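One chain shown below:
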Amino acid sequence: MADEVILLNFWPSIFGMRTTIALEEKGVKYEYREEEDVINNKTPLLLEMNPVHKKIPVLIHNGKPVCESIVQVQYIDEIWPEKNPFLPKDPYQRAQALFWADFIEKKVCVCGRRVWTTKGEELEAANKEFLELLKILQSELGDKPYFGDDKFGFVDIVLIGFFCWFPAYEKFGNYSMESECSELMAWGKRCMQRDSVANSLPDPERVIGYVLHLKKLFGLD
């Protein structure tokens, strides 16, 4: 009997992009269900499958929910281990990958949000911190093609969703990602050559439009 896999997601979500890429990398057949209004009108299925956080993405595997995108990517890697393993087998390298994923989740995601939700001195501080965090990641990348060395792996999947948001950060933060983090941008372009990534990331201009909508909705414009 074939696995039933459903992904509840909302198209601009960096978190949902991770899960989509992971499924695509593994060649898993799944049903994509768009949550059209995750702010004011969450579907009954979303609320049932994620009663704690009530947030997307939710991966439903044979009727059982798996929540939180990093957990989902790890779960996908363990359930379908035959193709394109994401995490290294070596315990130390595995721990390092999980460390950087946690860094992205707790530092980069939080700070990135402040770039488009603040003004004045707060925005200046957010810009400075955000670029410093990205440069730390760029330093970790070094001269490797991917964070997983020669292969696209766990940390790449966790971070690459930011690539389609970079133009929005540039617009509202008023800086150039190419001049600030050229090696990280080259990495992003390299990742975009993979079908799994290119098919999962939305058009950056559409992301900018969405952020403008949010800023107006929350009185931030």
User: Anything to note?
Assistant: The beta strands are 5-9, 31-34, 58-61, 64-67. The two ends are 51 Å apart (CA to CA).
